[in-house]
Structures are given as structure tokens and as C-alpha cells.
Design brief:
Helix content: 25-40%
Structural class: alpha/beta
InterPro entries: SsuA/THI5 (IPR015168)
Protein name: NitT/TauT family transport system substrate-binding protein
Subcellular location: Periplasm
Number of strands: 13
Shape: globular
CATH class of the largest domain: Alpha Beta
Main location: periplasm
Radius of gyration: 19 Å
Number of domains: 2
Strand order of the largest sheet: 3-5-4-6-13-7
CATH topology of the largest domain: D-Maltodextrin-Binding Protein, domain 2
CATH superfamily of the largest domain: Periplasmic binding protein-like II
Oligomer: single chain
Keywords: Signal
Strand content: 15-25%
Order of helices and strands: EEEEHHEHEHEEEHEHEHEHEHHHHHH
């Protein structure tokens, strides 16, 4: 089972897993005519989810993109964006990575969040995305419409898993309101599906590749069913932090953008970096479906997720996207 590995602990091959596992990644500001060199290194905390999506962060550390901007990182892992948003809002985290539904939910509750960089996109290819709805190989279900009346595992209730699965059900002509959702960590889903505890799972890489190896099969591609150009996640902070630290936020955004571009252009490097922070073999990393990474922020995709959140009853008031996105 994959666990999160700390960059400094990598030499000892010890995995760190679970919410609150703190990873100290200190990047010394040495050499180079970069933006942060003159003022030394400023350390910031970044909350993220230990999955494939955040590979660009680790590549950015490896390639020195954060160091070039005079930034040191402390990485804190959480199960999902719903756990990271409160940490950013409270100030215990400077920046967070999370899916856009989590960010929208926080903003709808009055949290003064501010998106500062793109995160990750779905592939836009049905049956070949990095998040899929999976069923057992011998399941009688043949389309997302068959999920009506069934139990589906998602990592966080009332979030992007629910809404995108419902989007698949609607696209297949089913009653999206008649699906039952169960909250479960990604690492536990495959066994729960095999045991019959749930009828389907909303699974993400690298656990998706493991599910396929276990004989489970794809029933639906929820991100593609939602919109082919779905920007799933972003990096964010608070408006207060952004207003008080505009130069630091700009440098963080620059480092993330460089990291996203590098990941997009170097898929082999992505596959090589994943086993350094997730305890999976290189052979499995080679089999993963990689998401799309680009620095571009797709406002339309966030609007689609906001509409789904409102339609599915996750929010009663649509958040101010201008305040969130700037």
C-alpha cells in the first residue's frame, strides 16, 4: 500500500502517511541570479494530498524551481482538500492544494480564499483518465446509470467525488439523486470493492492502477463526463496572506507554474519522482495514467463545478468567483 515519503527521509526509505505527517523540505538559497536570492530563503507551509496530482511539487523541489524563487517548503499531508481548506483559512498553512469543489465550498461559507496557481486537469479521454469509477470485473453494471440505488465509495462526502459521479449518472440517463455515497480513504477502496462492502469506487491513481491489476474494471469516467477540459484542482491561499505577502505569493506562483510546465513536458520524470514520495515500485509508476498539468487556469471549469455544487445541494449560495480567482 502506498505511503507518503518525506524528501528528507528518502535516504532512510521510511514512509510517512496520514493527516498531519509533516515533511520538512528546506531549500537553501545558494547561488543563481534569481528572484529570492538577495533576500535569502522564506519558508512556507503547503498542505497537499499524497497522490499523483502533486508530482510537480516534488519535481519543482528536485529541479530547484522553489530554490530559484527563494522559497523553502514544509509539506503537510491531508486526506483531501476538505481537510486542507480549513488549515489554510486558519493560517496554520500558508498555501494549500485541493480540488476546486473544496475551495468553492470554503468560499461559499465565507472563507476568504484566493486561487494562486493551476493544479491538475483530467485527461479528457473516456476510459483513460487518472480518476475513474470502478466496479468488480464480474459486476453486472454496464453504465453509470446502473449506479442508481448503489453504494459508491468516495474519499470525502459532499465534494467533487459526489458531484462528478452524479454528472456521469446524469450523462447516462440515470437518476443522480438516487446514488448512495460512502466516505472511505483511497487506499481502502479496492479491498472494500472486492469484499462487496460497496458497489463501486471513485478511484484515483496510483490506487486506480492497483484496482485494474486486481481485476476491477472501469464503469465511467466522471471527470470527462463533467467536462472534457476539467481543471480538477488548484493551489490557493487566503486573500489576507496574498495582500500582505504579494511578492512571496508571486514567487510561489512562478515556482508552481515552472513545476507544472516541467511535469507536462517530462512524463518520464514524473514517473520517476512518484516512487520517491509514494511507497510504490517503479514498475507500478510506469503503469499509471497521468493527469494533465498546465499553468493555465480554466475559469470555465470552475464555473461548471460551481454549478454542480449548487445543483447537488452542496452550496446554497454560489461563491464569488471574481474574489476567488481575481
Amino acid at each position: 500500500m502506498p505511503t507518503l515519503r518525506g524528501t528528507t527521509a528518502r535516504r532512510h526509505r521510511r514512509g510517512l502517511v496520514g493527516i498531519g505527517a509533516l515533511l520538512a523540505v528546506l531549500l537553501a538559497g545558494c547561488g543563481g541570479e534569481d528572484a529570492g536570492a538577495a533576500g535569502g530563503t522564506e519558508t512556507v507551509t503547503l498542505g497537499l494530498i499524497p497522490i499523483v496530482d502533486v508530482a510537480p511539487v516534488y519535481l519543482g523541489i528536485q529541479q530547484g524551481f522553489f530554490e530559484q524563487e527563494g522559497i523553502g517548503l514544509e509539506l503537510s499531508s491531508g486526506q483531501g482538500g476538505a481537510a486542507i481548506v480549513p488549515g489554510v483559512a486558519s493560517g496554520s498553512l500558508d498555501f494549500g492544494f485541493g480540488n476546486n469543489t473544496s475551495t468553492l465550498l470554503g468560499a461559499s461559507k465565507g472563507l476568504p480564499l484566493k486561487v494562486v496557481a493551476s493544479g491538475v486537469y483530467g485527461t479528457g479521454t473516456p476510459g483513460a483518465d487518472y480518476v475513474e469509477v470502478m466496479v468488480t470485473g464480474d459486476s453486472p453494471m454496464r453504465s453509470a446509470a446502473d449506479l442508481v440505488g448503489k453504494k459508491v465509495a468516495v474519499n470525502t462526502l459532499q465534494n467533487i467525488g459526489d458531484t462528478t459521479v452524479r454528472a456521469s449518472v446524469r450523462a447516462a440517463g440515470g437518476d443522480a439523486g438516487a446514488v448512495e455515497f460512502v466516505e472511505m480513504p483511497f487506499p481502502n477502496m479496492n479491498a472494500a470493492l472486492a469484499a462487496g462492502d460497496v458497489d463501486a469506487i471513485w478511484q484515483v491513481e496510483p490506487f486506480l492502477a492497483m484496482a485494474k491489476a486486481d481485476g476491477h474494471r472501469i464503469l465511467a469516467s466522471p471527470f470527462t463526463d463533467t467536462t472534457p477540459e476539467l481543471m480538477v484542482s488548484t493551489y490557493f491561499t487566503t486573500r489576507k496572506f496574498a495582500q500582505e505577502n504579494p511578492e512571496l505569493v508571486a514567487r510561489f506562483t512562478t515556482a508552481i507554474d515552472k513545476s507544472l510546465s516541467y511535469a507536462r513536458d517530462n512524463p518520464d520524470a514524473v514517473r520517476a519522482i512518484i516512487p520517491t514520495y509514494l511507497d510504490i515500485p517503479a514498475e507500478l509508476a510506469a503503469e499509471l495514467v497521468l493527469p494533465k498539468w498546465t499553468p493555465e487556469i480554466n475559469r470555465t471549469a470552475i464555473e461548471v463545478l460551481a454549478e454542480l455544487a449548487e445543483r447537488d445541494g452542496l452550496v446554497t449560495t454560489r461563491p464569488d468567483l471574481q474574489a476567488l480567482l481575481g
